[in-house]
Amino acid sequence: MLLDASAVLAFLQGETGGQAIRPLLAESLATQVVRSAAPFRVLVACDDDGVAEKRELVVDGFAWTANGADCHGPRLHPDGRLYWTHGRKGHTVKQKDGTLVHAGLNSGVWSMKTDGTDIRWHALGCADNPASIDFTPTGEVVGTVDLYFGSPRVDTLMHWQLGGVYERPDFLRIIADLPRTHERMPIIKELGHVVPSGCSFWKHGDRVAPADHPLSSGPDSLNLLVAFYNSKKIVRFELKPEGATYQATEHEFLTVDRKGAHLSDVIEAPDGSLLVVDTGTWYSHCPSSLQGVANVPGAIYRVRRTAEGKAAHEAVAKAHRPFSPAPVKSDAELLAQLASADQAVVRRGLEGLTFREAKSPAVTEAIRGLLSREADLVLEHAILTAGMRLAGFTAADLAPAA
What we know:
Elements: H1 5-16, H2 22-25, E1 31-35, E2 40-44, E3 54-59, E4 71-76, E5 82-86, E6 91-94, E7 100-104, E8 107-112, E9 120-125, E10 129-135, E11 141-150, E12 153-160, E13 164-166, E14 189-192, E15 196-201, H3 205-208, E16 222-228, E17 233-242, E18 245-255, E19 263-268, E20 274-278, E21 299-303, H4 310-319, H5 331-337, H6 343-355, H7 361-370, H8 377-390, H9 395-398
Parallel strand pairs: 9-13
Antiparallel strand pairs: 1-2, 2-3, 4-5, 5-8, 6-7, 8-9, 10-11, 11-12, 12-14, 15-16, 16-17, 17-18, 19-20, 20-21
Helix pairs in contact: 5-6, 6-8, 7-8
């Protein structure tokens, strides 16, 4: 169960007057999008007092059962859209004008513009609870899942692909009407039964790490921090590029030695330090919260370098800038990426064209040319999805890539 950004904000405003947390959650408190149960609402402040005078519903239709496998997020993508996840509870989601986006029992990843328009499903599937997501610098959606498989239980680390339909053998009926590209979609890492919850990329981890003890083993590595709810741990996954996706190496980072602790989220602050959210035992739907402990209150911990690392944190904080969306590539630039020898570059080009529904004879021919190239499962999915959505290819047309 994740604490919403709004809950963390309220807690720390009570502790610090809000000064420490405001740059972390929003560049301005003038407008924030937060989740209240299943709907998402925009909180609008009409002045600079930090209090939201207006609450506007921007998206609804996601079932809620109070067991935690509900909506998580939203988070701001590098492209300026808001992304969130929803568990396998059922949904009937419509645009503001009443147009149906999708209805089903599926769990999945969703996005919309910040004004609540252009709602889309990014990926749908059968897993119980996509718990958290974050984004790579190039926009890939990476996240944690509880109960991706059910018997035996397997939690996972995912690269959620655009148009991905993610299977689970005991729930295939709920994806029977969706266009699938693989019998089994790729997974970055199967974690076993660990109950992963919140996750965040530690964007400035190497900048605040000691010079003689860097976090990353190479310049292309990314560091994803994941909270393990039951085992009281924050685990660092080093993600290294591999084909069109990433491979993950697991490193234990932090363990809280506190009876009744349950870590539910980890967030990077503007100075490169970390905030770790511990929900204690309040969440009674989780059996481990009720085993052998009295009521244990929650807490928020800050993780940072000691005195000799103060200058590194100050330098990161000084370099912090307000959010601005990533530059928008033209159709021609995305099309040119399809000729790259790098599978990840090709995949990103295909996803960009697919997202904006960029149909043209040139795009169709480029996709046709990709059907015979060597591709891992991740790139293959992007080729097949683009072929169906942009070029109108049939199963027979796509057979060479299957």
